[in-house]
Design brief:
heterodimer; A: alpha/beta; Aconitase, domain 3; 2 domains; 5-stranded parallel beta sheet; B: about 170 residues; alpha/beta; Aconitase, domain 4; about 15% strand
Amino acid sequence: MPPMTFAQKVLSRASGEKANTGDIVNAKVDLAMSHENSALVLRSFREIGAKHIWDPRKVVMLFDHRIPANTIKAAEGHKEVRTFARAEALPNFYDLGEGICHQVLPEKGHVLPEMLVVGTDSHTTTYGALGAFSTGIGATEMAAVWATGEIWMKVPETMRIHLRGKLPPHVCSKDVILHIIGSLGSDGADYKCVEFVGDTVSRMSIASRMVMSNMSIEMGAKAGVCYPDRKTQDWLSSRTGRRLEIDTSYQSAEADEELEMDVEELEPQVACPHTVDNVVPVGKVEGMRIDQAVLGSCTNGRLEDLAAAEGVLRGNRVSRDVRFIVVPASREIYIEAAEKGILSSLAKAGAVIVNPGCGPCLGAHQGILAAGERCISTTNRNFRGRMGSPDSEVYLASPETVAASALKGVIADPRRL
Amino acid sequence: MMAGRVWRYGDHINTDLIIPGRYLDNYDLKHLAAHAMEDVDVQFAKEVRPGDIIVAGRNFGCGSSREQAPLALKAAGVAAVIAGSVSRIFYRNAVNVGLPIIVCPEAARLFEQGDTAEIDLAQGVLRNPRTGASVSFSPPPAFLLQILQDGGLVPHLRKRMEAGPR
Ligand code: SF4
């Protein structure tokens, strides 16, 4: 029998039946994540008439989008969920102390290869970087998962993207994924399980792989996976305290679509307003005046991202005309960056460092844009109105490109400083 | 069968356009309805009437997992969304909140702004009474149709829970 694809393998195990591509299966969920919208989940959960969560150990809840609460409504939402989490004695409720869900769950060792993970957030695809089958769902559907532990899933086709070659200096995984999204379009991987493979991916750190998996939703992917390897094993054992066996038999399964890309000549990329697939090499937009630069988010708020930006800015000062906002993705990263002197160096360069969380990414607080303003950001979405006024603009780029731009006050190429 | 007045939109209408993130701290349905489609069409929330139908192009509802997107449309009175293609999370959310959603690549060519759209969801037929043109689409699988008929996942599951353990 030919080997199953990654998606078929996980969904067969989770449903207890042979899952062929295109089948709809009823699958058991291994991990269920929700953030602020737990309030909405809770509302549906009660309306269903459910009493208790099917398996509290498999549920992780935290706040990250609006922390500390920025409005009375947000505070009330937090309070309602907090009360419920305490009453249910949920073992994995992190409140607002830890940071962005997509960093905190892997950090705390909740995510393992081949798990079926669902989260009430579209960037739940991030956990694919550790070899999980991981995807976003809505709040009401999560209420049903809380009640039953099950969900229907259509078994997706597999799109395997081979990445070959060494990345040039000042070019990173963010540039790779932006380039891929630019080429395939915002629905180019619609409903598919995307697998990122090849020597470029093998060389990437786990944090860099998370960038790839995180943004695979921006081309419509249901899941975005990097095969677990020695690096994954080491990373996971440092988080879970145990060594996991991994079996990647799905590597040799036949994919529905295979694409190839050589990264050796890749330039820094920028996604222009107002869609993520509107991608150009940085040279095309160089020199454009900016008002704000944001370093952070579940895409690029990790230690290597902060370090890369600090490397660009060390000993310099960002342009007076730019507000440079830095948001470490988690408390752990915040502490590490502080201990390594990265935060003080960034602060000396003029950064405003805010608490770990989503920060201004979704336009809720901590750096909302006024009409006519332009921002360059390491986040993952540049939709109209995403970071504030519908008449503002967001450009997406790598940490180095954002730091270089903050320094110059205009969109700048980190290779030419 | 249902019929409603058509609002025509283009490709890639994302969830931030359907309901911007700045309004998401308040789950009140009236509040969501008042800001539906605001960043793409300010007239929409003002003029939409119960029973109206959205007809859009490719990749409708791409972006975030916010269930408030289909909820805002439903609360504004939208009776169904027809699109050339639909992002997977929006599709699931629409069914789960009881908003009928139809995927039909030819629909965009069938209707203009202000037309009436006739939908036979179970048979999978769209018709424009003005032009007489019609196209077929594959109707949702039976279990999703059942969720829609029950008015969404919450009433659907409540019904099941009340019927006793399976
Ligand atoms: S950082 Fe941005 S994209 Fe990531 S979870 Fe938060 S709001 Fe969503």
